[in-house]
Amino acid sequence: MRQQPVIARPYGMGMRFPKLLTVGAAIAVTAGLVWLSQSDDSAVLPYVALLSLGSLAVFIGIWRSTALSARMVFGVALILHFLAIFGFAAFEDDYFRFIWDGWWLVISGTPYGVAPAEFFGQSLPDSGLALTLDGINNPHLPTIYGPTLQFIFSAAYLSAGTDPVGLRIFFAVINLILVALLLRWTSPEKAALYAWCPLVLAETIIHIHPDGVMAMLLLGGILVARRYPMAAGLFFGLAAGAKIVALALWPLLLRMGWRAVASAIAALTLIYGVFIIQGQGAGFDSTGVFASDWYYNPLGFFLLDAVLPSPIARASAALIGISIIMILHARTRSLEVAPIATIFGAILLFAPAVNSWYLLWILPFAVKSPMIWPFAATVALPLSYLTGLNLENPDLRDFEVHGLAWITQVVILLAALCWDYLRHRKAKHAGKPKPTPFTPIERPEIAVIIPALNEEASIGDVVREIKAQSWPAPPCVIVADNGSTDDTVNQARAAGAKIVHEPSRGYGAACLAGIAAIPPATNIVLFMDGDGADVPEEGPGLIEPLISDRAELVIGSRALGQKQTGAMSFPQQFGNWLATRLVWLIWDKRMTDLGPYRAIRADALDRLNMSDRDFGWTIEMQVKAVQQDMRIAERPANYRRRIGISKISGTVRGVLLAGHKILYVIGREAFFR
Fold first, then answer.
1. Phi, psi at residue 446, to the nearest 5°?
2. Which single residue of 133, 249, 318, 452 has CA 20 to 30 Å from 636?
């Protein structure tokens, strides 16, 4: 464990009192929860109140503290975990299933495929197992818990039999490992937000929930990812074997490399395969039942379920959740700043069932974030224990949360989300760089690059129109012939263009050949098509922002200009709309077109290191420019019907290839860079 330096306090012992008060509060709340958990079920109200308000008090105490050491954080966590072992899961019964699974795995070699209800009325080896069987919820269903957890359940059973203290000790040790990892990952003050949190202690140890196992494995994978990608993949595979929801973070493996991806797939396949080959399945049937039927304390899903039939609501929630998760991954700039807490939060927002122990997925990854909603959730979600069963309220169904408790949860979470949103907007506004003085180009040297393939009917007129415009300096017009079989080259040469040949087919390949041929003194490069669709008269207007240094890249937007009827097909217009919306969602940059008519400063073009050799050329340029924070402008560009047949929109194959390549480039730049 890395030792963190202690920040000196200028006012002596008096300034350390709040820190000691926070430690005392954490110990007192934990001891109180243990004591209340051992009383009868009528203590649910004071228990929930202490869990919610205690979590709030400890959070505020740590938040106000700036002088915690790693040794102190871990030492206090050790005391709190020890105290929690003496608790009793008065309001939870999931641990009966864990004990049963551990026993059945030891006896039969697999915990899957056999429902506990099949043992009703049968003689069991000891009375402890009989009591365990009586306590299992949904006994008609075989287990749903993943193989990583099953190995832990069986180890706990071998260690302590049917006594739940075995599970408590195992989960306490695993959670302390997670605390140690947090101390390697972040500051002691931030690690304490998880390590001392009463809700974490209650759900992990008192209530005996294993969700922290997944979080520990995921964080371990993140910490070793840079040096040992295969080990990181192993951890991610085991995490998915603990909780399938860990798959929501698997896109991060793409940033670690293919070895990490292969290792994760191999690990998950192996641990599930051990049980699948025995012919009893791996719990997926029961998981499907829960996914289609279970409904408990929903948040955002409540609205969908209120207006849609349940199957459609669940499918819609899954689709929305997956879309949000993929956008969050695409917006991630590096593994170190991955919004893991937000990704898991999106899952909870649209989940049909939301339990307070699901926060064990979120809290370890929220400690480095300035967001307060995950910690507000530690105050809100314990209210979900106020059900008809725990309150002994005949007016409520067993697993129906009291209406006032549900509303209070929603109000607390909405208030925290609004606070986070406003603070994010303020920080974003404050972080905008101050505008720098413009540095105009005093002597523009312009090169116009026209990639061409079989454009004999139009290329000559295009070149002559370009030369006829009023430019700040005469441009060097380069026609990059891409293997034309007609008279394109002769027509272009006769009109005064410089010819370069690129026999390898591809729009980007022709553009790269043209770039290689520009004169050394060139400081502005204009790209346009040779089919007569782009309007040469608009060229000087496109380069003007570059000369005045108000932009480094200027896109001629057909969406902002006038289009002749039939100039752009519907697939072209839809593809432009979709691609530019994806750029906005992922990189927060609004653009309206991927058109070929564009101008860029030569030094900026060099920095982009362009490489795409076919249909992905334009989107690659725009995405890379956004990634490098270049100043990008759009100007309206009129668009005429082209002369001849388009190589892209003129055929179904061309449309499909172009669309596929554009989406591929967006995905590559979003997930692999």
1. -110, 135
2. 452
Secondary structure (3-state) at 163: coil
Beta strands in 351-410, from DSSP E residues, in sequence order: none
CA-nearest of 145, 158, 271 to 208 is 145
Which residues, 6+ apart, have CB-to-CB distance to 660 below 8 Å?
none
List pLDDT tens digits, range 39-98. 865 589 999 999 999 999 999 999 877 689 999 999 999 999 999 999 999 889 999 999
Amino acid identity at 228: Y
Query: CA torsion sign, 268 to 273 to 274 to 275?
Result: positive
Q: How far is CA 129 from CA 119, 162, 164, in A?
A: 11, 7, 12
Asked if 447 and 474 count as a contact pair (C-beta separation under 8 A), the reply is: no
- Can you give the pLDDT at residue 433? 66
Chain segment 196-233, per-residue pLDDT in tens: 999 999 999 999 999 999 999 999 999 999 999 999 99
Determine the 3-state secondary structure of 635 from DSSP. strand
Model confidence pLDDT, tens digit, residues 506-529: 999 999 999 999 999 999 999 999
Q: Report the C-alpha gap between 479 and 499 in whole angstroms.
A: 5
Pick the closest to residue 204 from 46, 384, 80 (CA basis). 80
Nearest Cα residue to 546 out of 670, 633, 422 = 633
DSSP state at residue 646: -
Q: Which long-range contacts (CB under 8 A, 24 or more apart) does 104-107 make?
A: 105/150, 105/153, 105/154, 105/157, 106/154, 106/157, 106/158
What is the spatial distance between Cα 547 and Cα 256, in angstroms, rounded to a whole number? Answer: 41
Which tokens is 438 given? 């413009």
Identify the residue whose tokens are 């995950």. 374
User: What are the pLDDT digits (tens) for 582-635?
Assistant: 999 999 999 999 999 999 999 999 999 999 998 899 999 999 999 999 999 999
Which 8-state DSSP code applies to residue 248? G
Sheet containing 446-452: order of strands = 498-501, 476-481, 446-452, 524-527, 598-601, 553-557, 632-636
Contacts 24+ apart (CB under 8 A), 68-71: 68/19, 68/188, 68/189, 68/192, 69/3, 69/4, 69/5, 69/6, 69/188, 70/1, 70/2, 70/3, 70/4, 70/183, 70/188, 70/191, 71/1, 71/3
Helix axes 229-242, 211-224, angle to 10 degrees: 170
C-alpha to C-alpha distance for 271 and 239, rounded to whole angstroms:
11
Tokens standing for 367? Answer: 């400690």
In sequence order, which residues have a C-beta less than 8 Å from that of residue 15 and are 6 or more positions away? 9, 67
Residue 552 DSSP symbol = S
CA distance 481 to 232: 48
The answer to whether 593 and 487 have CB atoms below 8 angstroms apart is no
Enumerate the H helices of 474-538 as residue ranges.
Answer: 488-494, 507-516
Q: Name the token pair of 284.
A: 């997926």
Query: Measuring CA to CA, which residue among 647, 613, 614, 618 is closest to residue 632?
Result: 618
CA distance 444 to 422: 45
